[in-house]
Amino acid sequence: MRRGTDTALHVFVEGRRTALFRSAYLLCGNRDEAEDLVQTTLVRVVLGARRHGRLDNLDAYARRTLVNTFVSGRRRFWRREHAYGELPDVPAQQADNETGLMVRAALAELTPKQRAVLVLRYWEDLSVAATAELLGMRESTVKSHTARGLAALKAAVREEHV
């Protein structure tokens, strides 16, 4: 039974790693931090699945773990050290378009919970009810975080165009 569980977990990790990274990147706004967040999430998911021996709804468990890990990390007054490699001699060519940069910058200004709600609602395409269940909050709280987060995003975009 353990071998079948490990195989299923391996398939899950390989199949969902990229999608989890995309969500993590939108939450963090930083590739290195997003990689760390995904790695921590996947370790917790694998250990949790092995401990409980259940694989039902592993995708929802991974999403919830990702968001909870992100939000709890933002509650700390201090952050982990920030490692910087050697700077290249020439700047890397930007592959992002202006709109993507604006949206990510605006997302970075939101509170962690607002950012989590917007990523889950509009990137992961979850319903209000599913987002509320995943984050452990009431639907009305999800709606208010959504409204405030969208208002802040719109204001940030308007500022960029002025």
Automatic annotation (TrEMBL):
Q: Which PANTHER family match?
A: ECF RNA POLYMERASE SIGMA FACTOR SIGM (PTHR43133:SF50), RNA POLYMERASE ECF-TYPE SIGMA FACTO (PTHR43133)
Name one process (GO BP) from the record: DNA-templated transcription initiation
Q: Which family does it belong to?
A: Belongs to the sigma-70 factor family. ECF subfamily.
Assigned keywords, A-Z:
DNA-binding, Sigma factor, Transcription, Transcription regulation
Q: Mind telling me which Gene3D superfamilies this protein's record contains?
A: 1.10.1740.10, Winged helix-like DNA-binding domain superfamily/Winged helix DNA-binding domain (1.10.10.10)
Q: Which GO terms describe its molecular function?
A: DNA binding; sigma factor activity
Q: Does the keyword Transcription regulation apply?
A: yes
Descriptive protein name: RNA polymerase sigma24 factor
The lineage, from the top, is: Bacteria, Bacillati, Actinomycetota, Actinomycetes, Kitasatosporales
Q: Where is the RNA polymerase sigma-70 region domain?
A: 17-79
Domain RNA polymerase sigma factor 70 region 4 type intervals: 102-153
Keyword Transcription regulation recorded: yes
Q: Which domain of life is it from?
A: Bacteria
Task: Kindly give the InterPro entries that the UniProt entry links to this protein.
Answer: RNA_pol_sigma-70-like (IPR039425), RNA_pol_sigma-70_dom (IPR014284), RNA_pol_sigma70_r2 (IPR007627), RNA_pol_sigma70_r4_t2 (IPR013249), RNA_pol_sigma_r2 (IPR013325), RNA_pol_sigma_r3/r4-like (IPR013324), WH-like_DNA-bd_sf (IPR036388)
